[in-house]
Amino acid sequence: MNRRLSFVFAAPLALTLASCGDSAQEADETALEGEAIADIAAPDGQSWLETASETEEGGFVIGNPEAPLKLVEYASHTCGACAYFAENGSAPLQENYVQSGVVSYEIRPLLRDPLDVTISTLARCGSPEGFHALADQAWASLSEFGDTLQSNGTAYEAAMSAPPEQRFVQLAQAAGLIDFFAARGISADQARTCLADGDAINAMAEKSSEVAAANNVTGTPTFFLNGQRLDVNQWQALEPILQRAGAR
Q1: In 114-233, where does DSSP find H-type helix?
Q2: Which residues make beta-bridge pairs with 72?
Q3: Between the CA of residue 77 and those of 34, 67, 82, 141, 151, what are the distances in Å?
């Protein structure tokens, strides 16, 4: 196993929720400037906010598949800055830009620790259409998960020492994630099945490592617009870039 995968099945006992930060940035945002783009209607009876799919890069995208502006966020589910973006940027991004058909929005995982792996696995355990909502709700409760897990240190140690097929099930139970996702449509049985699927988790971690390395992404959140890395990591700075690119 490579270094990225080593934490998945042989992680240290200490849990850090601050394992996020900036990637090296190389941006030429002037290359993204353009004329205003007219709204693009979704097919009759459909909404672009309900149009979703899993991508070849292991992410989940919502919005018009042919949107002229394609926004990609590399994110970790245990990154406080990612949680801040989810709280302050996700709703206006989706409601004002994705819903118009002008912008599509993809979240790609940059897995960093066992809790991140557990949350990522559960967020993708349902349908692609539900991923973004589940991810946002998990980010909103990140501190709660961390506090619960820190208070259950013995359970965390036991989970990290358990066989691979039991490890993330036990970790989810220790962090209160089984009940959290059950209240949001992922049944306890469904969650345990996803968390026990070592092959799928291994593949997710492999893809996360491969795609991040290919794009030189080392920190979260990191944003790309139409393949161009952006020198911003929060909504207040991202929205003007989208507007200058034509989403207005």
Answers
A1: 114-123, 128-140, 142-151, 153-161, 164-175, 177-182, 188-195, 198-214
A2: 106, 224
A3: 33, 26, 7, 10, 19
Task: Please name which of 178, 202, 221, 219 lies closest in space to residue 58, comparing C-alpha atoms.
Answer: 202
Exposed/middle/buried for 214, CB within 10 Å: 0-12, 13-18, 19+? exposed
Rounded to two decimals, the pTM is 0.89
- The CA distance from 86 to 33, in Å, is 25
Distance CA 77, CA 118 (A): 9
Residues 6 or more apart in contact with residue 146 via CB below 8 angstroms: 15, 17, 78, 115
Please write the tens of the pLDDT for every residue from 22-45. Answer: 554 455 566 788 899 999 999 999
CA–CA dist 30, 151 (Å, integer) = 48
CB 149 within 8 A of CB 175: yes
Q: How far apart are CA 81 and CA 219, in angstroms?
A: 10
Q: Are residues 85 and 234 in contact, defined by beta-carbon separation less than 8 angstroms?
A: yes
- Gyration radius of the chain's alpha carbons: 18
69 close to 37: Cβ distance less than 8 angstroms: yes
State which H helix or E strand residue 28 sits in: none
pLDDT in tens, 82-115: 999 999 999 999 999 999 999 999 999 999 999 9
Q: Are strands 222-225 and 52-54 parallel, antiparallel or unpaired?
A: unpaired
Beta-ladder partners of 228? 225
